[in-house]
Amino acid sequence: MQPVLTAKQQQFFGYLQQQMARTGQAPSLRQAAMDLGVSHAAIAQIFKVLEEKGYVKREGRYSRTIYLLNRARQTSALQRWREVPIIGRVTAGLPMYAQTEWDGTAVLDAAIFRGQNLFALHVKGDSMKDAGILNGDLAICEPRQYAQNGEIVVALINSESATVKRFFLHSDNIELRPENRNYPSLRYSFDEVLIQGKVIGIQRPPGGIK
């Protein structure tokens, strides 16, 4: 349980919540001092106490990146979201995070999905249902140009169509294996497959699949 704040500490914490909700980042201590009509030293002292009491966390000693914490001392919901692009169509030759054809964005929990340049793809069909990936899901992916055997990847086939399958490298071919007994494995020569990313999670539409 977090220690109780004094009236002045609560006022400053409320100010931080308001500013970060409005601008997406914490104000400088100087700006906070001006807004609240107190000295820079007083703001610095209050902020230090909030850190000690577990209400805020600074990314680095001198960083302006500040996180507000909830009662479990985890980043509050206010800051636990991030937007990533949903790729509508994969274009050969471009890294996934540089694709120009977006089909909207997905909002993810930043505490779970921490990678850089993440992207999402709509899953079509039920070929991966036994891996818990269903038709209509969003596959959350980390950009990659390589894969380890057994990983679920986004692969671009013949520079045309993207597919989500389990990857296996053999001596004479690449196997893209579905997770559904009703579908056969797909085998391609090495120059037919470009790995675009690794699937690191799934986001299901609210209410499940219709």
User: What is the general shape?
Assistant: elongated
Q: What number of domains? A: 2
Mean pLDDT: 80
Query: What is the CATH C-level name of the largest domain?
Result: Mainly Beta
Q: Examine the secondary-structure arrangement and name the CATH architecture of the largest domain.
A: Ribbon
Query: Any idea what the radius of gyration is?
Result: 23 Å
Strand count, sense and closure of the main sheet?
A: 7 strands, antiparallel
How many helices does DSSP assign?
A: 3
What would CATH call the homologous superfamily of the largest domain?
A: Umud Fragment, subunit A
Amino- and carboxy-terminal Cα gap: 41 Å
Percent range for β-strand residues: 25-35%
Global structural class:
alpha+beta
- CATH structural fold name of the largest domain: Umud Fragment, subunit A
Q: Unreliable runs, pLDDT <50, ≥5 residues? A: 74-79
Overview of the molecule:
By secondary structure, the chain is an alpha+beta fold. It folds into 2 domains: 7-79, Arc Repressor Mutant, subunit A, CATH 1.10.10; 81-203, Ribbon (Umud Fragment, subunit A), CATH 2.10.109. The protein is built from 3 helices and 11 strands. It has helices at residues 7-23, 29-36, 40-52; strands spanning 56-58, 66-68, 81-87, 102-109, 119-122, 138-143, 152-157, 161-169, 174-177, 186-188, 193-203. The strands form 3 sheets. It has a 7-stranded antiparallel β-sheet, with no helix packed on it. A hairpin with an 8-residue loop joins strand 9 and strand 10 (186-188). The protein is elongated. The relative contact order is 0.12.
